[in-house]
Amino acid sequence: MRLSKVVHFLVAIVLVIPIAVVAWILSRPLPGIDSPLMAVDQRERSGPTFEDVRFTRAEWKREILDRFDENDLKDQADPAAQVYRLVFLPTFHEPVCIRVDNRSGQYSVIVTKLSGQGGFTFDELGKRWPSEAKFISHNDWLGLERLIEASRFWELETIDVFDEPVNDGAYWVLEGENGLYHRVERIRPSEHLKTAMLRLIDLGGVRNDYAGYFD
Questions:
Q1: Please, are residues 160 and 167 in contact by the beta-carbon 8 Å criterion?
Q2: Is 31 buried (19+), middle (13-18) or exposed (0-12) by CB count in 10 A?
Q3: I need a surface site. Which of 20, 102, 126, 201 has the fewest CB within 10 A?
Q4: SS3 of 99, please?
């Protein structure tokens, strides 16, 4: 009789322990999925944390601007120029940089793409394709400025602490320079900010290339 009870006890343990282990595993949170620009190589980061800024200034210049062959707007040679620049990094498509300039009443847009994908490591951003440039009208420039003002771009925090990582999306970085410099980085931009950034996309003529990211 005692032997039978011991056997039953051992069988119960054998059955219960695996069930308990599986239940514990299932109760653990899944690993977080990083946003496109959270894919920066954390091994190289020694500056502010993710909550402070997605890129250090050195990373921004070395890993992004240099790849697009773009200058740091803080160091631009023409202090009288007004510039808006959008860097759009879609997870599975080619990164693109769209810069709209106002230089003494000459308005232009320059579009540069990279050959890789925007949602992974710096090494996967790819190589630069030749840039395309064209002039735009005074009204085009005024329309963009109205949207920038409506978005309150100059008053926004660089980082939105409530921004949430996404599986498949894009990372938007909008810069402005008009004697002052400002940069805003977003995963999920507000409607007004998104409208302003989409205007740069339209001026660059690349909306159809990234249509699935704007829904």
A1: no
A2: exposed
A3: 20
A4: strand
Residue type, 202: D
- Which amino acid, one-letter code, is at 10? L
Q: Is residue 166 domain-resident?
A: yes
DSSP conformational letter for 74: G
The answer to whether residue 204 sits within a structural domain is: yes
Cβ neighbour number for residue 32 with a 10 Å cutoff: 8
- Give the total number of structural domains in the chain: 1
Q: What is the CATH number of the domain that holds 66?
A: 3.30.1560
Is the pLDDT assigned to residue 138 strictly greater than 70?
Answer: yes
pLDDT tens for each residue of 53-83? 467 777 888 889 999 999 999 887 677 889 9
DSSP H helices in the chain: 2-27, 57-59, 66-68, 138-150, 191-204
In a domain, 125, yes or no: yes
Handedness of CA 192, 193, 198, 204 (dihedral sign): positive
pLDDT computed for residue 48 by the predictor: 30
* pLDDT > 70? residue 177: yes
The sign of the CA dihedral 68, 153, 163, 90 is negative
Give the tens place of pLDDT for each residue, 19-55: 554 454 444 443 333 444 444 433 333 333 333 346 7
Domain that holds residue 54: 36-213
For position 121, what pLDDT does the model report?
81
Question: For the whole model, what pTM was predicted?
Answer: 0.74
Residue 190 domain flag: yes
